[in-house]
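[job 0412] stage=complex_fold ligand=zinc ion status=START
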Amino acid sequence: MFTDSHCHLAMPELARDWLAVRAAMAAAQVTRALCISTSMEEFPQVRELAHRFDGVWASVGVHPEHEGVSEPSEDELAACAADARVIAIGETGLDYYQMQERKAGRAIADLDWQRARFRTHIRAARRADKPLVIHTRAAADDTLRILREEGVGQGASAWDRSPGVFHCFTESAAVAQAALDMGFYLSFSGIVTFKNARDVQEVARAAPQERILIETDAPYLAPAPMRGKINSPAHVPYVAAKLAELRGTTPERIGEITSANFDALFLARNRRI
Ligand SMILES: [Zn+2]
Ligand SMILES: [Zn+2]
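[job 0412] stage=complex_fold status=DONE, emitting structure tokens
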């Protein structure tokens, strides 16, 4: 049994053929998936999938890259997260990659709106007692700094002991350690299967067993040997197979471990409420 801890089932590439996606998941023994919101505009559809299907849950949040979309307050996010099928806040975080690439007269210093949005999501997650799904790209130092400034991992609450997950982990071993020290889980995507992903593979090999998750980030980032195709939660066993190879175990065992970790992070606290 496998659990995809991060995918975007409401995106048209997957939503338009949802029954085929479900069938492929069943055939691959991928029985559960966390469907991630990237905007408040998208959230109702994400929530609807989580209410309609067993084994599908939702998050609520606005992706750090999105501009020109509605900007939820801490109150709005916490209210949306009160739904029992909404088990996480995010994806949220910082993404400076486009700014670095374009260098089109815009600077990282101008991204105060990203940093403010991130803080709003952190506060809503703490208030709602739901884990954060963190997206960080070309912004690890600021991501860690803001989490620290918001006191994440420093309180005595259950939320502070496991405040969330760094999804699609592609950062250094030092960033991994800083995230683990704050109580975060690390989720590995299809990137870990890419030949040139040596640093990520080393983090995936060495990470503590009780803190690893697997994901597809579908419809993006199809793992080898599906690279370049539309990704689907049904492909998460390829990620499990790579972790199994790196850690000297079986894909099935990685499926069990990461499913139990998913329960501990996302579902146990919902039962507690
Ligand atoms: Zn992301
Ligand atoms: Zn995502």
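The mean pLDDT is 94.
[job 0412] exit 0
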